[in-house]
Amino acid sequence: MSLVANRASIPNPRSVSGSSVIYWLYVTIKREIELSYWFMESNFDAAFVPFPIFTTASLLYRRATYAEAVLSLAYTLLYGFLFYYSTELANNAEGGTIEDKINKPNRPIVQSQTTVAAVKIRFYIASGTWLLLSYTLDVHMWSLLWVVVLISLYLLHFSRIGPAKDLCIVLGVVSQLMACWKLGGSDMHYGWRWVKLIILWIFFTVPIQDFRDVPGDLAAGRRTTPILLGDIPARIYTSLGLVSMEPWYNAVAIIYVLALSAEHGNS
C-alpha cells in the first residue's frame, strides 16, 4: 500500500472531534426537548395557551397592524414559554418525590431521567433568562409578581395550604394576563377590567384541579381545598362557584364589550 493510501486511511483528528461535538449537541438538545415536554405536558392548556389569546385580544382592541401583531405575538410566545417552563421546573422540583410518584408517575424525576438538583439548575437558568427578557419587554413588574408567587408557593410552602395556594394562583393569573395585555400594547386600564372578572371566577374554581391529586397530596402532607373541606363539601363549593359566577360573569362581560365598543365608536 502506498504512503498516500496510508495517509488517506488515517482519520482526521479535527474531523472526528468536530463530528463528536455536533453529535453531542444533537443528543443533548434532543434530550432537553424531550425532557421539557415531559416537564410541561400536564398543564399546557392552563399555563401557556392564555398568553397568545390575551395578547391577541389586546392587539385587536387597539387595532394593531399585521406587522405589529406578528412581532408582539412572537415576543409573547417566547415570554410565555419561559414563564411556563420555569414554573413547571419549580413544580417538578417541589413534587419530585412522594407526591409525583403517586399523582404524576410519568414525570422525569420520578422516571429517574434527571434529578431534583439538575431541575433546579435548569430553573435558575430559565428564570434568569425570562427575567432578562421581561425587563427588555418592559413587563418586569408582572414578572416580579410571579417570582413572589413562586417563592410563596415553593419556598414558603403556601402550596401545601388550600386557600393560600388558591390565592397564589389568582395572583399568578394576574401577573400572566396583565403581562400579555401589555405585550399587546393596549391601555392597561382596560386589560385590568377583564382580568378582574377572570380572577374572581378562578379563585372559586381553581380547587377543581386538586381533586385528581388528593392521594399524592395526602401522602405529601398537603392540605389543599378538597382535603380541608372534604370531598363532597369541596365539590359543592366549586360547583357553586361555577354556577353562581357564570351568569354574573357573562352579564358583566357583555356590558364591558358594549361599553368598549361604544368607546371605540366615539374615538
UniProtKB/TrEMBL annotation:
Membrane-traversing stretches: 66-85, 139-156
Matching InterPro entries: Prenyltransferase_related (IPR050475), UbiA_prenyltransferase (IPR000537)
A GO MF term: transferase activity, transferring alkyl or aryl (other than methyl) groups
Coiled coil: none
Topology relative to the membrane: Multi-pass membrane protein
Keywords annotated in UniProt: Membrane, Transmembrane, Transmembrane helix
Top-level lineage group: Eukaryota
Gene Ontology, cellular component aspect: membrane
Matching PANTHER family: CHLOROPHYLL SYNTHASE, CHLOROPHYLL SYNTHASE, CHLOROPLASTIC
Protein name as annotated: Uncharacterized protein
Organism of this sequence: Aspergillus niger (strain ATCC 1015 / CBS 113.46 / FGSC A1144 / LSHB Ac4 / NCTC 3858a / NRRL 328 / USDA 3528.7)
Organism lineage string: Eukaryota, Fungi, Dikarya, Ascomycota, Pezizomycotina
